[in-house]
Write a structure and sequence with these properties.
The chain is α+β, with helices and mostly antiparallel strands. Strand 1 and strand 2 form a beta hairpin. It starts with a helix and ends with a helix. Keywords: Cytoplasm, Initiation factor, Protein biosynthesis. This is Translation initiation factor IF-3.
């Protein structure tokens, strides 16, 4: 349809001629309210951004000679992060003569990976980076799945508490 005819039709129906797909051959235009079109396209973009997965990397720092209780505490943090669907970067900091014994760091990181293997997997193997040794553990579950599961668990707990309160 010629542009002049389309513009005349738009004027008659009190609408705007909006070019929807300018890169298409031939370009696609529609008769519609431009304000409504702008609003709807902004809402689509906003929804797409909302549904986009943004990865968060949490970091835990350890020392090669860590006390068993401290190790369990740090492992608990890693478990919590993995259950929430976040990646965990585990860093072992070497100081002084500890740098001459990197195998202690490897053993500690491998032990941690084995302890949390039901919740996550090793994304990057332990590697020395200057004074630090780094390993990244990723969750088996996606962030959305973890959030949904946590919400269901909270709801069931609330239901149990309300049932206990009425009994």
């Amino acid at each position: 349809m010629p542009i002049a005819k389309a513009l005349e039709l738009a004027r008659e129906s009190d609408l705007d001629l909006v070019e929807v797909a300018p890169t298409a051959r031939p370009p696609v235009a529609k008769l519609m309210d431009y304000g409504k079109f702008k609003y709807e396209s902004a809402m689509k973009a906003r929804e797409a951004r909302k549904n986009q997965a943004h990865t968060i990397i949490k970091e835990i720092k350890l020392r090669p000679k860590i006390d068993p209780h401290d190790y369990e505490t740090k492992k608990g943090h890693v478990v919590r992060f993995l259950k929430a669907g976040d990646k965990v970067k585990v860093t072992i900091m070497f100081r002084g003569r500890e740098q001459s014994r990197p195998e202690l760091g490897f053993r500690l990181l491998n032990r941690l990976a084995e302890d949390v293997q039901e919740l996550g997997f090793v994304e990057s193997r332990p590697k020395q980076d200057g004074r630090n040794m780094i390993m990244v553990i990723g969750p088996h579950k996606k962030k959305a799945e973890a959030k949904a599961e946590a919400k269901a668990e909270r709801d069931s707990r609330a239901q149990q508490q309300s049932d206990a309160g009425t009994a």
